[in-house]
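Q: My labmate handed me this sequence with no annotations at all. I'd like to see what the chain might look like in three dimensions before we decide whether it's worth expressing. Could you predict it?
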Amino acid sequence: MSYTIALNFEDGVTRFIGCKAGETVLDAAYRQKVNLPMDCSDGVCGTCKGHCEQGEFDMGDEYLEEALSDEEAAEGQVLTCQMVPSTDCVVQVPVASSLCKTAVGKVEGTVAVVEPLSEDSIELAIDLDDGAELAFLPGQYIHIDVPGTAEHRSYSFSSLPGEKRATFLIRNIPNGVMSGYLTERAAVGDRLTLTGPLGSFYLREVKRPVLMLAGGTGLAPFLSMLEQLVEKGCDAPIHMIYGVNKDDHLVKTDALDAFAEQLPGFTYTTVVVDEESRNPRKGYVTHHMDAGVMHDGDVDVYLCGPPPMVDAVLKHFDEQGIVPQSFHYEKFTPNQAPGEAA
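A: Here is what I predict for the chain of 342 residues:
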């Protein structure tokens, strides 16, 4: 038996390793040429301390309290030299990946689909090469090299981790480097290089109600999250507020309808900024966050959208005195990853 351990480094790089039954995370990492911080490897010094955000494990009782206190252990802190996983895990490593002699991965693939979804969004599907491995946490993003240029752009996955076809929602930006390629030159079979995964915005273990706030093509990571929740099963209340500028900017609502049928606790509403919109809810997502979706603060909030939307939600929470149980957000700018208005 083997478990998958996602090592998230402080520079945003994620590296996935396999951990054998009974093997410590530190030993598994070294076996796969990832040099996690360590001095003693005996639970004495605390150098290998990290934080387990997800998964189950055994720490035994062979380490010293000076290396890891009871209070730290209760908060999810771990010593990777003593941590023996019993499930897949996500571990935060408080150093840069370069210091651990590991680097972000690269995979190759071919363009499979380029489909305009609206005037401002394009869906890109990439078929990965045979044998290519592209593990990621739902919500993370990856760099995609733009053919014919020396540049890359970053986009969140909208597909399920582990699939051979990776999909992305890409904002169609006038005169944009990637937009220009997709609308003018892209052809099925074009070769693409992807570098990643990256980012600390990803779905954590669902232990309470979840509120998802999506702006424009910031919907993409939530599609990936919902795909995984369908695969693993989830009964918790999950509500999404999906905001765009114009009616025809609402995309993938058929997929959201399908998720609502597959996940008993999932609901969503749409919001459109345009005052001439036919949508029953107009304005911004902050205008439609009633008390019910906040569950008196016992809620995990995920927010993905452009900077104005993120700033508006942060301001709204501050002004209303809203303190969710956890709050995770990704702020996209046009030259990094997709995002529209909220």
